[in-house]
């Protein structure tokens, strides 16, 4: 997001929303990841919404690219920009003999691609050594505007118990080095190898939060204060809360669904804070266990309720989340779209479910083709709202 976007987020706390999507680049013939990010980004050029923060960027691996939307106020606008980013990268990748694939981890095994050039990426590779040598995990990051940093930290406290449910719904990474693993969200097992990864600690103030980050930097386990591995955090640059728990979504529909739920949670937290309702300090180990459970099972199995510390069906936890944010979704005009998109996931399964079905029927190469097609089409279902039928070109 660019400097012009800061005022937009400050003016519309709980409304302004933006998404960053990470993609793998696979060779059109071999279907394996290929180091063509520089070429693809050069062809893609400038993002149509660059003035409000949209852009195309490189990632840690030269086999990955990112599309960021600008700041949006309406879910339909976000959907349009997500579709535009995917269409632009698909066209650019095809010109380079590749296709973008939106998945949390690669499907086919292959030699790890090099680290992207640059001082910061070099420092990251030097600090973390082997665990970044083959790190190719892709996520979906959501930014929601908040009034200030102090509020951002308080909002993150409210988000902590819900992160595992957001992950369970978004799982899209069952593959590990070419095999279908026992995990629906294998990406999360890669992230937790990094220091301080997972559900963020409860912080009573922005000062306490900053002290925690500074201590990790001082200990030499983070490159700088802008680098934490927590799955929700105050943005180190903008007046937003950034949620990074979700796997990269196969379709734009699922990206927008996740973003809408995140915005609903942030808006609900802002309402609670205005009413003087602080977040419960839910046990960190229970939150970590719930996160592991979500990565292991996705929506197809038991979930762990951080409030009651009991195993319950994952879909019941999701129903609880929707009930929790329902007033915020209705106020934002997102409720009908969210319910329609959720029904699509209930019918079609999560991204991990669909990958496993395709692998069982046709093999791993067919999974890559399916993911590439879904990345390009962007559509899991067609919601009833006409706003989601806009042409993204």
Give the arrangement of secondary structure elements:
Elements: H1 4-11, E1 17-27, H2 37-44, E2 55-58, E3 64-68, H3 75-95, E4 98-101, H4 119-128, H5 130-133, E5 139-145, H6 149-159, H7 163-170, E6 175-176, E7 179-180, H8 186-191, H9 206-218, E8 232-234, E9 240-247, H10 252-274, H11 284-297, E10 302-305, E11 310-313, H12 314-332, H13 335-348, H14 351-362, H15 364-377
Antiparallel strand pairs: 1-3, 1-4, 1-5, 2-3, 5-9, 6-7, 8-9, 10-11
Protein name: Putative glutamate--cysteine ligase 2
Pfam families: GCS2 (PF04107)
EC number: 6.3.2.2
Architecture overview:
The chain is of the alpha+beta class and 393 residues long. It has one domain (4-373): Creatine Kinase, Chain A, domain 2, CATH 3.30.590.20. It contains 15 helices and eleven strands. The chain has helices spanning 4-11, 37-44, 75-95, 119-128, 130-133, 149-159, 163-170, 186-191, 206-218, 252-274, 284-297, 314-332, 335-348, 351-362, 364-377; strands spanning 17-27, 55-58, 64-68, 98-101, 139-145, 175-176, 179-180, 232-234, 240-247, 302-305, 310-313. Strands 1, 2, 3, 4, 5, 8 and 9 form a seven-stranded antiparallel beta sheet that branches. A two-stranded antiparallel ribbon has the order 6-7. Strands 10-11 form a two-stranded antiparallel sheet. Strand 8 and strand 9 form a beta hairpin. Helix 7 crosses helix 12 and helix 10 (252-274) packs across helix 12. The longest helix has 23 residues, at 252-274. The protein is globular. Mean pLDDT is 92; it is low at 1-10 and 383-387. It catalyses: L-cysteine + L-glutamate + ATP = gamma-L-glutamyl-L-cysteine + ADP + phosphate + H(+). Its EC number is 6.3.2.2. This is Putative glutamate--cysteine ligase 2. ATP-dependent carboxylate-amine ligase which exhibits weak glutamate--cysteine ligase activity. Belongs to the glutamate--cysteine ligase type 2 family. YbdK subfamily.
């Amino acid at each position: 997001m660019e400097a012009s976007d800061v005022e937009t987020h400050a003016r519309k706390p709980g409304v302004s929303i933006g998404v960053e999507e990470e993609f793998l680049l696979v060779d059109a013939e071999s279907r394996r990841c290929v180091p063509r990010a520089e070429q693809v980004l050069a062809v893609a050029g400038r993002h149509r919404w660059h003035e409000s923060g949209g852009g195309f960027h490189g990632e840690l691996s030269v086999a990955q690219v990112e599309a960021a939307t600008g700041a949006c106020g309406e879910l339909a606008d976000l959907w349009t920009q997500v579709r535009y980013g995917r269409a632009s990268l698909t066209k650019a990748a095809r010109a380079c003999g590749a296709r973008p694939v939106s998945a949390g981890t690669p499907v086919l095994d292959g030699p790890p691609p090099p680290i992207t050039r640059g001082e910061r990426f070099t420092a990251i590779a030097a600090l973390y050594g082997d665990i970044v040598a083959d790190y190719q995990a892709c996520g979906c990051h959501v930014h929601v505007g908040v009034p200030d940093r102090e509020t951002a930290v308080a909002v993150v406290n409210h988000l902590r118990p819900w992160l595992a449910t957001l992950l369970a719904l978004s799982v899209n990474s069952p593959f590990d080095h070419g095999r279908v693993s026992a995990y629906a969200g294998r990406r999360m097992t890669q992230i937790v190898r990094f220091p301080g990864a997972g559900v963020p600690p409860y912080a009573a103030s922005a000062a306490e939060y900053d002290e925690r980050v500074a201590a990790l930097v001082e200990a030499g386990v983070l490159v700088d204060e802008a680098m934490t591995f927590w799955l929700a955090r105050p943005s180190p640059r903008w007046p937003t809360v950034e949620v990074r728990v979700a796997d990269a979504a196969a379709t734009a529909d699922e990206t927008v669904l996740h973003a809408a739920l995140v915005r609903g949670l942030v808006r609900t937290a802002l309402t609670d804070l205005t009413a003087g309702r602080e977040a419960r300090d839910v046990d960190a180990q229970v939150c970590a266990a719930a996160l592991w459970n979500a990565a292991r099972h996705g929506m197809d199995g038991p979930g762990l309720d951080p409030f009651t510390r009991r195993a319950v069906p994952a879909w019941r936890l999701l129903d609880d989340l929707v009930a929790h944010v329902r007033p915020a979704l209705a106020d934002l005009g997102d409720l009908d779209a969210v319910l329609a998109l959720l029904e699509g996931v209930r019918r079609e399964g999560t991204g991990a479910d669909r990958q496993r079905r395709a692998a069982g029927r046709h093999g791993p190469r067919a999974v890559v083709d399916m993911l590439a097609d879904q990345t390009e089409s962007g559509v899991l279902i067609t919601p009833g709202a006409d706003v989601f039928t806009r042409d993204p070109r």
